[in-house]
Specification:
The protein has 204 residues and is mainly alpha-helical. 77% of the residues lie in helices and 0% in strands. The protein contains 11 helices and no strands. Keywords: DNA-binding.
Length: 204
């Protein structure tokens, strides 16, 4: 991976401050370049537009989280249905632990995604995760039904609502700038709540 130039580092530093303060839509590219001490020509030597600068600040941690999430889902999917039922809470706990560490290692990037990304490809970041979680959960429900509980019926809209509630709740730690210790306690409680809730709904 090619290292960043001093010009890029300065543009990213100033751009991050501007985006955090004003949001993507209201941040001025001219102001960013001026405050960084460069010309627009110098900027365009590295980034095609304002959104490219924003993406450079968030794309790596955002994709790393998605990649890890996919890996957790894949590992869970490879278990037998009995193992999936018995380890439902364990799998999600492992994911929560990693996610907390990753978020706090890249806090500003996730702050940008969650609070400042309107107008960019990242404004629907949570929605994408929720869609994946909804599909995965409904697949799990179908597996349970295939084992003999054919009367189990959970509306897909409810699965979506609960998935959205879980991930929106998780990312509140960033929206509200929670200290890591408090955030960890909060996420553990949130995890217990949703695991218990799903076990009740799914009759596990």
């Amino acid at each position: 991976m090619q290292s960043l130039t001093e010009t890029q580092k300065k543009l990213l530093e100033v751009g991050k401050r501007e985006f955090l303060e004003k949001g993507f839509k209201n941040a001025s590219l001219r102001d960013i370049v001026k405050k960084a001490g460069f010309t627009l020509g110098a900027f365009y030597g590295y980034y095609t537009n304002k959104e490219a600068l924003f993406c450079a600040l968030v794309e790596k941690p955002a994709q790393e989280l998605l990649n890890y999430y996919f890996s957790i889902l894949q590992k869970f999917k490879e278990l037998s249905i009995v193992e999936q039922i018995n380890h439902l809470g364990d799998a999600s706990q492992e994911g929560m632990d990693w996610t907390i560490e990753h978020i706090y290692d890249n806090f500003d990037a996730f702050k940008l995604i969650l609070c400042c990304s309107s107008g960019t490809e990242y404004e629907n970041y949570i929605d994408k995760i929720v869609e994946i979680e909804t599909a995965s959960t409904y697949s799990f429900i179908d597996m349970i039904k295939s084992t003999g509980d054919s009367y189990l019926h959970i509306d897909e809209d409810l699965v979506h609502i609960l998935s959205n509630a879980m991930f929106s709740g998780l990312f509140e730690i960033v929206v509200h700038d929670m200290p890591k210790v408090r955030a960890t306690q909060y996420v553990y409680t949130l995890h217990e709540f949703f695991v218990a809730g799903w076990q009740k709904i799914l009759r596990l």
